[in-house]
Specification:
- With 130 residues, the chain is mainly α.
- The protein has one domain: Globin-like, CATH 1.10.490.10.
- The chain contains seven helices and no strands.
- The longest helix has 20 residues.
- It is globular, with a radius of gyration of 14 Å.
- It binds protoporphyrin IX containing FE (HEM).
- Protoporphyrin IX containing FE binds next to helix 3, helix 4, helix 5, helix 6 and helix 7.
Length: 130
């Protein structure tokens, strides 16, 4: 099975559990007070739903879908809009891996590398649009 297929199935085993997204933001916000501060005025219920779609875009991009949605994320997170410094994406991916480890019953070190390889091109595109 290709990396992109393994990642798609891994997300399929995880994405339907609402607690996944709560845990993700807890893990992510624990990484830095700056990150926590960015979400103080955010409706987290809505944000968790948006994240669900956002991760799906990354996963679908790895499976060959066009980069339209990735570019839209690059645009919305850019300096002139939400101003998300590229340094935060490493923490975002780490938080995602910690959350997957908890919710995907078939998670492994090998699958983690698969995820990281698959997400890299989209993440680099978003960072480069800063
Ligand atoms: C590739 C990884 C990421 C994905 C898929 C993602 C996804 C999203 C989505 C879908 C939204 C809703 C608005 C929109 O569609 O643009 C959003 C908003 C937001 N994201 Fe991200 N994001 C990512 C990385 C980050 C990082 C690293 C940060 C840094 C802390 C961040 C901070 C925010 C903030 C502050 C908002 C606005 C919240 C509000 O409306 O109050 N995101 N993100």
């Amino acid at each position: 099975m290709s990396d992109a297929d393994r990642v798609f199935q891994s997300y399929g085993r995880s994405c339907n559990n609402p607690a996944f997204y709560e845990d993700f933001y807890n893990n992510f916000m624990q990484k830095s007070p700056e990150i926590r501060a960015m979400f103080v005025n955010t409706n987290m219920e809505a944000q968790r739903a948006l994240l669900r779609g956002g991760i799906m875009w990354l996963v679908m991009h790895a499976r060959g879908l066009p980069d339209t949605k990735i570019r839209a994320l690059g645009e919305s997170h850019s300096r002139d809009k939400m101003n998300i410094n590229p340094m935060y994406y490493g923490m975002w991916v780490d938080a995602l891996m910690e959350t997957l480890q908890k919710y995907d019953t078939e998670f492994s070190a090998d699958l983690e590398q698969c995820w990281r390889r698959s997400l890299r091109p989209a993440i680099e595109m978003i960072q480069s649009m800063y």
